[in-house]
Each structure stands twice: as structure tokens, then as C-alpha cells.
Amino acid sequence: MTFRQLLNHVVVRNLLGLLALVAVHYVSDQYHINQRLGVNQYLPYFFLLLLYGWLVVHNRLLFERLYLYNKPLAYAGWTLLIMTGFSVNMHLILSSQFAVRHTFPHIISFWVYTVAGLGVYVLYRYLQTPGHVLALPTTPRSTATSAEGSNLVCTVNGEKQSIPCADMLYLESLENYVKITTLTKVYVTRMTLKEAEERLPKPVFVRISRSHIVNTARIEKLGPDDVRIGGRELRIGKVYKRYVSEQMAGGEPG
């Protein structure tokens, strides 16, 4: 396993995230930790552990399974309900067990950490750094129309869907799920990106990285390191550059 693969492992990423959260808290807490007695010295870090667990539940379950499944109202409802319950519980514990008179700043910090945690998660998973963009050569007619009449049949939110391939912009890997972005809607289905690649019509759909497959008929700009599609910049993986270049030129991979 390479160093990059190790860093991309979900357990390693979560451990690094937790360590970063503890380190940031310790910077501001190092002058006060010795003023607390006994086990109280380490209670804030125990709460940080619980907070990080909540961030994982919020981002990986509520956000991915509800919001990305086009259920924003269910996501907002469950998130507000759980966070309100946590806030009331936090107030009771702080006021009764630790004699904290002003619990509001601590509760606000909990909400801020949740929003910040979601922001970091979204930046890490969904945003790519744009590179230099060049104009895309005119796509051959045969390539642009080869997806017409084809559909990708998959299960979305427990229901079978037949998604027209010609409407797809790009597909994105979410580990054991695939996020399919079309002209009008976003779908999330339980499938690996490799499975989707095998079922999509070629050569119109090209895999550009470990995380993305694009519909070449919908590409707006093509650069040496990225493509622009649907107003979004997607990076081309280093090991895919030659293959992508050959496909965009209309040739076959050698």
C-alpha cells in the first residue's frame, strides 16, 4: 500500500481528522488544563471525541443518505431535531454537573463545529482544484450521439430508475455508491464506479480518474490536467492522462 493509498483509507482519514480537532482545541486549552482537577482535565477531550463521532454520523449518514438522495427537508428535519436534543442535553450536563452558568457559548460552539465539519467534508470530497483550461476540440458527431437511446438502469432510494445516458454529465464515486449528475437532477445509487463504467456506452463515457467518469459529449472545456463539465472542474488522474488524451482525440487506447 502506497503512502497516498494509506492517507485515503477511511480509518486513517478519520484518525487524522480527530487528531487535528484535538490539536486545535489543545492550542487554546493548554493554559487552562492544569487549572482543572482530576478527570476534569480530560473531559473536554472526551466531549471532542463524542463531537467527532457526531460529525461522522452527520456527514456520512444524514448528509449523504438524505441530502444527496434529494431529501433536503428530511435532512434538515432530522439534523435540527438531533442537534436540538444534543443542545438541551449539553445545557443540562454543563449546568448541573459542572456548575457552568453560561452554557450558551458552548452550545453555539457545538453548532459551529457541525457546520465547519460539514464544510471541510464537502471541500474534501466534492471540490477539485481547477487547472489551466483549453478549448475542447469539436466532438465527432458519432461520439456525441452514441449515448442517445441508451439508459442506465439502477436502484435509487429503493426504486428502479432508468436514467438516459445522453442526459448525464458525470458520475462520481462515493465509495460503495455512485453519484450521477444529469442535466436536471442528481441521483445516488449503490454501485461501484467500475460497475457503472462497464455498463455505460463507449466511447462517449470516459473515466478520467479514480473518482469520476464524464460524458464527453457534455464537456465544456478540456485542459491538460482537468475538464470542465456542468460548470465544474474535474481533475484528470495522472494514470488516466494518456487514456483520456487518446479518447478525446478520437483514437483507441494503445
From TrEMBL:
<feature type="transmembrane region" description="Helical">
    <location>
        <begin position="7"/>
        <end position="27"/>
    </location>
</feature>
<keyword id="KW-0812">Transmembrane</keyword>
<protein>
    <submittedName>
        <fullName>LytTR family transcriptional regulator</fullName>
    </submittedName>
</protein>
<feature type="domain" description="HTH LytTR-type">
    <location>
        <begin position="152"/>
        <end position="250"/>
    </location>
</feature>
<keyword id="KW-0472">Membrane</keyword>
<feature type="transmembrane region" description="Helical">
    <location>
        <begin position="42"/>
        <end position="61"/>
    </location>
</feature>
<feature type="transmembrane region" description="Helical">
    <location>
        <begin position="73"/>
        <end position="94"/>
    </location>
</feature>
<dbReference type="InterPro" id="IPR007492">
    <property type="entry name" value="LytTR_DNA-bd_dom"/>
</dbReference>
<dbReference type="InterPro" id="IPR046947">
    <property type="entry name" value="LytR-like"/>
</dbReference>
<keyword id="KW-1133">Transmembrane helix</keyword>
<dbReference type="Pfam" id="PF04397">
    <property type="entry name" value="LytTR"/>
</dbReference>
<feature type="transmembrane region" description="Helical">
    <location>
        <begin position="106"/>
        <end position="124"/>
    </location>
</feature>
<dbReference type="GO" id="GO:0003677">
    <property type="term" value="F:DNA binding"/>
</dbReference>
<dbReference type="GO" id="GO:0000156">
    <property type="term" value="F:phosphorelay response regulator activity"/>
</dbReference>
